[in-house]
């Protein structure tokens, strides 16, 4: 037997329903916020992600799936959506069409991480990227979009944490004091952090190994080194969030795991103990230099991405059902070959009219067919035997009321349609959906 690769999973038909519901909820919210969908390749030229030899983020240094294709091109499976989206934005000159381009995407990403609950090697992200504006209101809008999605999914135990990394000047000043501080603690730093001390000291603050140590907690915080402009930007983000009634918490130690951020950074954290370190369900920030770094004009951007598996898991833990169970409008039960052919014919009429229908294709007996009607959550069951067929009649049972009637074989479609329009859906199929 061949098994799936480590860190991957199958989405079975029962679970696909929650996925499609999540996707449609996301699409609706993106429409509400006026973000347009973009679809970029799952693999990109490696330099899309491996841009900078000084990039010390785990994602870029340790977790990418890199390979050479048959023509020796260096290829990377995308570990995230931002860089590919920005690459497409530049390559297709979207900036020339729209002064502000608000994009969203959904799809699989790949990171060679140690798999555990909520962390896999292939996972899906929903992300948004707003390109073209350096206004703090767009930072706040991106966070608002995330908060709105959380609300639409019925999740309540989610915290928005945010911080600012300031502009280049603020970070330069901050990096200097950080290096001085951590130089006095080199014997306590892990080997990765020693490397980060040279290349990107800010990244040290994101270390998962040293994070809980005392010297770590006492490290200087960025807010003391912000330029006036950076402070102003961040304060306006906070004011905008307040104006939109979005609760948040400023966390001065939040720096995020990717190297491209400047100014606002944020994470959406879910309070579910079983999630452990995977409690960050969505995160993002501003990246004012990325478009230029990828070879485009000087255009600022801000964005965010959610782990879709984590969103689904959070819904599951919170007892929020995303999708209504499947059902059919009509299940056809036929006894005998002639009846089966007639049922097939009438079922096609109903299907052409848009009704969800099914029938037995296994030659099962009456009892098993009734059971199949039940398993398929049939609103109506049509029963056709030779006697009914002779008279062009059919027995139809409304499974909500258990009332059975005999009607013309040729009137199933209008009969069911009329009942559905008058009674809405049957009780079995009316389990509450997330709005
Ligand atoms: P990120 O924090 O690396 O940011 O990932 C965003 C989210 O993807 C995480 O909060 C988490 O929910 C999910 N995620 C990440 N890795 C895994 C994994 N191995 N298994 C399951 N879920 C995972 C970014 O990717 C940035 N591109 C976000 C962004 C967009 N910043 C600006 N624009």
Query: What's the CATH topology name of the largest domain?
Result: BirA Bifunctional Protein, domain 2
Query: What is the CA-CA span between the terminal residues?
Result: 42 Å
Within the largest sheet, what's the order of strands?
1-5-6-11-10-9-7-8
Strand content bin: 15-25%
Strand tally is 16
Taken together, the total number of domains comes to 2
The average pLDDT score comes to 92
The CATH C-level name of the largest domain is Alpha Beta
CATH architecture term of the largest domain: 2-Layer Sandwich
Which cofactors or ions or other ligands sit in this model? histidyl-adenosine monophosphate
Class of secondary structure makeup: alpha+beta
Main sheet summary: 8 strands, mixed
Short description:
With 435 residues, the protein is α+β, with helices and mostly antiparallel strands.
3D structure, described in words:
By secondary structure, the protein is an alpha+beta fold. The protein has two domains: 13-167 and 227-317, BirA Bifunctional Protein, domain 2, CATH 3.30.930.10; 329-424, Anticodon-binding domain (Rossmann fold, 3-Layer(aba) Sandwich). The protein is built from 14 helices and 16 strands. The strands form three sheets. It has an eight-stranded mixed beta sheet with strand order 1-5-6-11-10-9-7-8, sandwiched between helices. α1 (13-32) packs antiparallel against α4. The longest helix has 20 residues, at 13-32. It is elongated and about 95 Å long. The two termini are 42 Å apart. The relative contact order is 0.12. It binds histidyl-adenosine monophosphate (HAM). Histidyl-adenosine monophosphate binds next to β6, β10, β11 and α10.
